[in-house]
Amino acid sequence: MAADLKGEGTGPKRGRAFPQRVWACILSVTLPAIRDGRTPMPMDAGEIERLIKASLPDAEVSIRDLAGDGDHYAAHVVSSAFAGKTRVQQHQMVYQALGGRMGDVLHALALTTAPRKD
Amino acid sequence: MTEHQAVHDWIAKTIAANDVVLFMKGTSKFPQCGFSAQVAQILAHVGVDYKDVNVLEDMGIREGIKAFSNWPTIPQLYIKGEFVGGCDIVREMFQHGELQQILDDKGIPYDKKTAVA
Predict the structure, then answer these.
(1) CATH of span A12-115
(2) What was the ipTM of the complex prediction?
(3) To the nearest whole angstrom, how far is the Cα of A7 from the nearest Cα of chain B?
(4) Which pLDDT value is given to residue A106?
(5) What gap in Å lies between CA A99 and CA A38, rounded to an integer?
(6) Dist CA B52 CA B76 (whole Å)
(7) Whole-prediction pTM
(8) Is residue B114 within 8 Å of A2, Cβ to Cβ?
(9) Residue in B32, B70, B95 closest to A24 by CB
């Protein structure tokens, strides 16, 4: 079991259905949004990068579209602003940059952060 | 006391009374979200006892924990009253052996065979 927890590249592949519990999780976000008249539009990767760079101008942002559906991303953000901050604080800075979209329209953004080394 | 204050107090009391608390969608035995399931799986693998709080059972706690931690998503892991992170951070810490290191530092029992040498 440790192996599959540690494995990279075990994410959903293009065209492959998610496990039922992942669907349940996605629907738990999108259905209330539809009910409230908010459009659960998937976010464009370029828009995610733009928002992060607007708050963290020196950030290097790399984004992978995990499922090929424009809705499940993994982002890696490197910035000198992260120096001396805990991981929680670094992620909070990125969430702040995304201005409340995380956990709302942006449901599935796997995030890793690191301070710039130079 | 407002409901908001009551929820805040309940969360504060719960993370003070339990060494390890996971706020999650579903339960440790039956997670109802892939992200919550990943953290539950990591904690089970590490062999640490924890209190699971199913946020799907209480809308007040579901929203309250986000404000309490200043963290927009569920799951959320607390160790000795301290917010450790969500799914991404817990997974990263586990991969680097840092999760086990925290448990060691705080004197919380777990399966030492899983510690990274």
Answers:
(1) 3.30.300.90
(2) 0.89
(3) 10
(4) 82
(5) 16
(6) 10
(7) 0.81
(8) yes
(9) B32
